[in-house]
Amino acid sequence: MMSGLKIIYNSKSSLLILIILAVVGCTRETDKVEEPKYTETKHIVKRGENFETILDKLSVADCKVAIISVLKNSGFPFRKCLPGDTLFLEKKNGEFLKLTYRQNLHNTYYVTTDSATFVVAMKYPYVDTSLTFIKGDIKSTLYESMLAVGETSNLVIRYADVFAWEVDFFTETQEGDSFFIYIEKTFCDSVFVDYGAIIFARYCGEAGDFYGVYYCDPEGREDYYNLEGKSLRKSLLKSPLRFSYISSYFSKRRFHPILKVWRPHHGLDYVAPIGTPVSSIGGGKVVYKGWKGSYGNLVEIRHKNNFRSRYGHLKRFAKGLYVGKRIKAGDLVGYLGSTGLSTGPHLHFELHKNGVPINPLRVKIPRAPSVKKKYMNAFKSHRDSLLHTIQVMSSDGGEELPET
Ligand SMILES: [Zn+2]
User: How far is the CA of 246 from the centre of ligand 1 (A)?
Assistant: First the structure.
């Protein structure tokens, strides 16, 4: 989704009506009822369905061949008939009148008929993408405050992701803090469809004043950086599981629930349902995959800066995982289980530094790489023009921005 930066662009409106006449595929009785009865059926495409099976479900058997044939002639992308697309079938006195196929919110196809022919029309909506400046103050939570200024939960997630390593929006937001976002928004026939890339983000409050500048260097390396060009990301993720809780912490001495002896627990236990995807906390190389005593099914990854991570008690391994494979942060390594010496479904997660197990919650994890030295000047001028644009766009114009 992160393409190059464009300050404002509008894709022109295009409304193309393609009319194709097809041979009549079904006969219709002449209307003899005084009050015609109209019905509309909505169908959302589900996984495993194709266009033909959907027509069968909508019971248009007598017109099926004609509809498919006229769509085929119009170049209708049958293969792109995907879950989530919507069909509306209109009938008059129980007979086919109109079929509307709405594909991915963008393109709409209509099949209509009079008594003699079938016709296809396609409508490409007016798509408009522009950069918008959003700002607001925290009243209660970040979530509620963003919804209060007319945005959606999708934006809250994207914004929180930019600052995931800087601010804990669950605990560190305070009333009176403020947020600023410069982002692409896409509209389809004037209706908001989706957000594009966040170009710039700022969070200003009790916890500090944080900036996130999106920058893509000439080699295509993209990231969010602070004003000094340092990456906002750390080289390792916070957790190998997205939704879970920790049931057992790192400790030098823990009473083992199965062995009934005191021994160190050199990791964290994350509790989540069996089969929950477990992902690598960082990029690196798989150095172990297999059974290892009390760990059960274990995966071990070697990362940069002499870090290693271990994922134990796995139910099974990710497909295509092998020793020596290079993986990226967030890549699937396996599924949570209860193999080996385990009291119940959980992930045993360990982090080692220079061969010694360390407490993952305490470790200082280095940042992901900064903007390269040779691109630092380009980054700075990009940053300054962004800050300038935002200052101009900021409605009151009095927003205090840092001296750079
Ligand atoms: Zn454990």
Answer: 10
